[in-house]
Design goal:
It contains 14 helices and nine strands. With 371 residues, it is an alpha+beta fold. The mean pLDDT is 92. The structure holds iron/sulfur cluster. The site of iron/sulfur cluster has 15 residues, from helix 9 and helix 12. It comes from Polynucleobacter kasalickyi. It catalyses: Hydrolyzes free adenine bases from 7,8-dihydro-8-oxoguanine:adenine mismatched double-stranded DNA, leaving an apurinic site.
């Protein structure tokens, strides 16, 4: 076994994370689910949702048979909704083409919707002792620091270097692959962290790699991996209609691709980029903007409706400000196209709704408050 792997496995025996519900699991369905959820969502958020998902969809076949709307509803709030759509699509393929059994080879797993190379290898290592390394962001950072890779990890040459190194480091004993893979994840998440790696701590500095780590020895820990300057987040604005009729609300289902794809939201205008936050209150609420999705037979009800102050929602690469007009109507005063539907307030909990829309509805006590 490489000395890198030896140190890591030993470290994990003493200091690895304990008690996470997906640790020590060998069932590929559960491993796959946790890996997909953890891709862009914090561990603390994933724990409850992972358990909820498993209680509702205990097997890959149960997930495959569920309506996509149920899956989206359970995913709502985790963000990056393409993951939920891919999860459902992948479950259907496993159920129909693989008889409900996950393939063991990473190359085959990697061809399924939403399963990237590193995730495929994680499933293969955890469940089938497959000897191939993962290379998520935590592992990239660890290997880049220990081996002093100073270039951008986004370039194909540095990326290839990382994959080659990662594969050379795996233990020869296949039976060690689950613990080694878990140790890689834990070490990157708790020791060789992006902003406060343990070797930079003045009080506790006991990294198992400090004698070998090139970045540490050369004082380059905080320079590796090379940070690419991010372009500033865009500001986009939209206007939305909260149309209420007694105990029902008019919602629009978004197309399956794109942001909030497949979720239910309020009828809205296209998101438009503005130069600064000073412009977010410049609303027009021209009725034509909502047509042909929604039209009103009684224009004065629309004109006199109250407009709420803009709300803000921050995405990774953009910030959305949306203003909302609250229109209370009789249902026969509204015509809408087939993308819209009247939904009873009591049924909202069963639909996939974007988090800011949930919050807005909660403020109107249409839905139970969400955090
Ligand atoms: S010495 Fe520092 S940079 Fe190197 S592996 Fe340890 S924590 Fe990471």
């Amino acid at each position: 076994m490489s000395s890198f792997a030896q140190k890591l496995v030993k470290w994990h025996q003493n200091y690895g994370r304990r008690g996470l519900p997906w640790q020590g699991v060998r069932d590929p369905y559960k491993v796959w689910l946790s890996e997909i959820m953890l891709q862009q969502t914090q561990v603390a958020t994933v724990i409850d949702r992972y358990q909820l998902f498993l209680s509702k969809f205990p097997t890959v076949n149960a997930l495959a048979q569920a309506p996509l709307d149920d899956v989206m509803a359970l995913w709502a709030g985790l963000g990056y909704y393409t993951r939920a759509r891919n999860l459902h699509a992948c479950a259907k393929i496993i159920a129909s083409e693989f008889n409900g059994k996950f393939p063991e080879e990473p190359e085959t797993l990697n061809k399924l919707p939403g399963i990237g190379k590193s995730t495929a290898r994680a499933i293969a290592a955890f469940c089938f002792n497959h000897s191939a390394s993962i290379l998520d962001a935590n592992v990239q950072r660890l290997i880049a620091r220990v081996y002093g890779i100073e270039g951008s990890l986004k370039t194909s040459s540095e990326n290839k270097k990382l994959w080659d190194l990662a594969d050379q480091l795996v233990p020869k004993e296949a039976a060690l692959m689950p613990i080694y893979t878990q140790a890689l994840m834990d070490f990157g998440a708790t020791v060789c962290k992006p902003t406060a790696p343990i070797c930079q701590n003045q009080v506790v500095n006991n990294c198992v790699y400090s004698a070998d780590c090139i970045a540490f020895k050369n004082g380059l820990v905080m320079q590796i991996p090379l940070k690419i300057k991010k372009s500033p987040s865009k500001i986009v604005v939209s206007e939305m209609l909260l149309i209420l009729s007694q105990d029902e609300i008019l919602l629009e289902k978004r197309p399956s691709s794109g942001i909030w794809g497949g979720l239910w939201t309020l009828p809205e205008t296209p998101w438009v980029e503005v130069k600064s936050e000073n412009e977010v209150s410049n609303t027009s609420f021209q009725l034509e903007q909502f047509q042909p999705v929604v039209t009103f037979t009684n224009q004065s009800i629309y004109d006199e409706a109250k407009i709420l102050a803009p709300l803000k929602h921050v995405f990774t690469h953009r910030t959305l400000y949306f203003s909302t007009k609250v229109v209370r109507v009789q249902k026969n005063m509204v015509k809408c196209n087939q993308s819209c539907d009247w939904v009873k307030k009591s049924d909202l909990g069963h639909l996939g709704l974007p988090t800011p829309i949930k919050k807005l509805l909660a403020d109107f006590q249409v839905l139970k408050r969400v955090d």
